[in-house]
């Protein structure tokens, strides 16, 4: 196909979007708004209303196109990032548009593209990285070959301390457990580094040998996690920190988003506030600082167990359980904060929040599509008071959004 296609925007997921001669939308990875491209021969796949293709040639680059600094992005087609070929301001504009489009198209809401808080750091911000292991190779997946794994040399968005650890581990892969399928490296809040080995084989008997072989091994904790089983420490101090629990991979930006979310509740002194899908209790701790009577719920027992050990300004009631199951037993709230996984709110949670509206509801979301779906459902009894996006994931198409709802 020799016709030129002009890319006009960035879709959710990071692909550039243009139009074919017949009017159908075409999604092309690694393209930028304003690019004039030729589609790679044999790559075009057409469906009824749209198509997908790969870039054959960029005949004319758009104004926001830059040279990606990471060799894996271009040479290995790394799928971990989607927007390294865009200058940072263009990335922010794309994410604002992604959120705004989802809220209007899926949520049927009359809103403009939200303002976005730019990242403190554009690179080296991730406190966690998960590597796939296949055929003796540990690394990441190409975006166009998801079943393949290329060896990772360096990830430019991962913290330097994790990559230093990875360089040492690469030379000692023989000390990792048999049947290894995934290797996760994570920093905790005290600067310790965690190695979580997920495997199908026998327990990790060489974990202590590996730890002692590492230059800074006294600050490393090794975990073994059998497939479909619970992780346990095999070497290093058992600090109690749940290395397998969910936590924002960009700690600095996560704090900014949570603080803004809590501020939007106003004066909550002496008021009951629910913190649903609360994880290890970060939002609960901020609410306690504001003098609220906090009830924090999460299904991850390890996360709740650690949250119960942390010091808070006022006591917090932490409950391990699924939000939809425990709601009937909770005290009536004045306000609610929800931070669900990508799947969004469970239908029973939505029903409770609409049947018994609260003064103010703050929704923290990592997925604009499910956020928009849930806001459409909540719109029956709430109106939007504020929307703000936060760039927790520079170089990727992911974006965090905080929406403030008031009872209508």
Give structural notes.
- This protein is α/β, with parallel strands linked by helices.
- The chain is built from ten helices and 22 strands.
- It has helices at 71-75, 88-105, 160-170, 207-213, 251-263, 282-289, 301-307, 323-326, 347-355, 368-378; strands at residues 4-10, 16-19, 25-28, 36-39, 45-46, 50-52, 55-60, 115-117, 128-134, 137-140, 150-151, 180-187, 193-199, 220-226, 232-235, 272-276, 293-298, 316-320, 335-338, 360-365, 382-390, 400-407.
- The strands form three sheets. The protein has an eight-stranded mixed sheet with strand order 8-21-22-20-19-16-17-18, with helices on both faces.
Task: Compose a concise summary of this entry.
It contains 10 helices and 22 strands. It has helices at 71-75, 88-105, 160-170, 207-213, 251-263, 282-289, 301-307, 323-326, 347-355, 368-378, and strands spanning 4-10, 16-19, 25-28, 36-39, 45-46, 50-52, 55-60, 115-117, 128-134, 137-140, 150-151, 180-187, 193-199, 220-226, 232-235, 272-276, 293-298, 316-320, 335-338, 360-365, 382-390, 400-407.
